[in-house]
Description:
Elements: H1 2-9, E1 13-17, E2 21-26, E3 30-36, E4 39-42, E5 48-51, H2 53-58, E6 66-69, E7 72-73, E8 76-77, H3 80-94, E9 104-109, H4 115-127, E10 132-137, H5 138-145, E11 156-161, E12 166-172, E13 175-182, H6 186-201, E14 203-204, H7 207-217, E15 228-235, E16 241-247, H8 248-272, H9 275-284, E17 286-289, H10 298-306, E18 310-312, H11 319-327, H12 331-337
Parallel strand pairs: 1-9, 9-10, 11-17, 17-18
Antiparallel strand pairs: 1-2, 2-3, 4-5, 4-6, 7-8, 11-12, 12-13, 14-15, 15-16
Helix pairs in contact: 3-4, 5-11, 6-7, 6-8
Amino acid sequence: MLLGALAFFSDDLAIDLGTANTCVFVRGRGIVLSEPSIVAFNTTNGQIEAVGNEAKEMLGRTPANITAIKPMRDGVIADFEAAERMLGYFIRKAHKGKRFVRPRVVIGVPSEITQVERRAVKDSAYRAKASEVHLIEEGMAAAIGAGMPITEAAGNMIVDIGGGTTDIAVLSLAGTVYSKSVRVAGNAMDEAITQYVRREHNLLIGERTAERIKMDIGSAAPLDRPKRMEVKGRHQLEGKPTTIVMTDGEIREALSEPIRMIIQAVRDGLERIPPELSADVCDRGIVLSGGGALLQKMDERLRIETGLPVQVAEDPLSSVVLGAGKMLSDFDLLRKISID
Length: 340
């Protein structure tokens, strides 16, 4: 009984443990932090030098004894120790450094996560001092966060384009009728831009530059007004710092393959759902969430390719953590949809 009371009064958390960013929601306070999923380690003494925003600033700029690590890859834990320490840091920061807090935690994970990967996520959260850990699929969490009526007897389709994975889900009666997780999303787009710039311009650029190019002039369909951008990097052959000008058309060409793969995955989903639910999706359309939903003209391109109405969630970057956060106040629904 005492344990239950302690759990009730502790600050329960919802976490979107993303490949690119980690968002934390505290019950009663809302989203309290959203920071890059990066840890900077000092290899000399094994200490953490920085986590999140501070660690991202160090990317590509660290001395030999400091390594910036991304603990998540393709939506799952790739570096167990770094993930555990990052989670511990974020939980403490969310609780303003309070000690002896043992929150209940709801974490959004990709739909095709393996049993081993699930165990790794739960173990990391327990070691970071969680009292209970519940996992829910990111597609389901994003749909709840986007305000979709998932408990109705009707098909709702969501496409959540994150950093490491794109999660596609069709939901009805608080259950998942169809789900697919493809490991092509925002990071794959950044990598495609990096490769294109190297191939076409002999210019080497870093991750942060590729991400900025994507956000500033990247698009999934032709823009109403053409855009250009100065890009700085190191010339591959001459070895000196060089500046070039790139157009939105070039970046669209660079992004064509990852975008094609995401659209193909959505089409596959539409082909595999039962006819009754197909009719619902035709009426209600598709909701886009995740950072990839903010790529210019992504909704328009999906609309053209599928022939269905497409709308972007009100707060696409936070849909997963908002949905997981709602579960902290609705444990009956959480029991139905958790994948423990």
